[in-house]
Amino acid sequence: MQDGDLGTWDKPRILLVLEDTLARPVFRHSRSGLLKHTDVLMDADDWDWAITTVKTIMRYSYNSVPVEVITFLSQDAADMAAEWFNRYDIEVASVEYYSYAHFTRSLTWRRNDIQEIIDAVPERVLKYGQLGRVITWDSEF
User: Fold this and answer.
1) Residue 47 has pLDDT above 70, yes or no
2) What torsion do the CA atoms of 5, 8, 9, 15 make, to the nearest 10 degrees?
3) What is the average pLDDT value for the chain, to the nearest integer?
4) Is 133 exposed, middle or buried (0-12, 13-18, 19+ CB in 10 A)?
5) How far, in Å, CA of 135 to CA of 141, rounded?
6) Gap between the Cα atoms of 133 and 67, Å rounded
């Protein structure tokens, strides 16, 4: 492992969006004060995980195809997901947080090493261009 890489990969990467595709993070409503309500992200074990999609990640990693998980929620969500993957020995190349606008802009210079971007939300996939692919919840890709 060097410079933050979690493995060595010799093929183009597959990017998989965390929310609504791989997991459905659970938030707990918290109240701090009289009027202020905040949503607190629950532990990743409490999230609803798409088990078939997780098994597909494991199959791809077995065949040396890197799967990178990305989230548009927050850095906390990315950290919790990465911790969950490590806890259950699921090999992913990385788990990263991006703002959606920055991610779609970065595709103009990142296209060469990305095989496809998998997402379950058709409106987001429209911004990925030919790299985007829509799947349904808890399915193989």
Assistant:
1) yes
2) -20
3) 89
4) middle
5) 7
6) 14
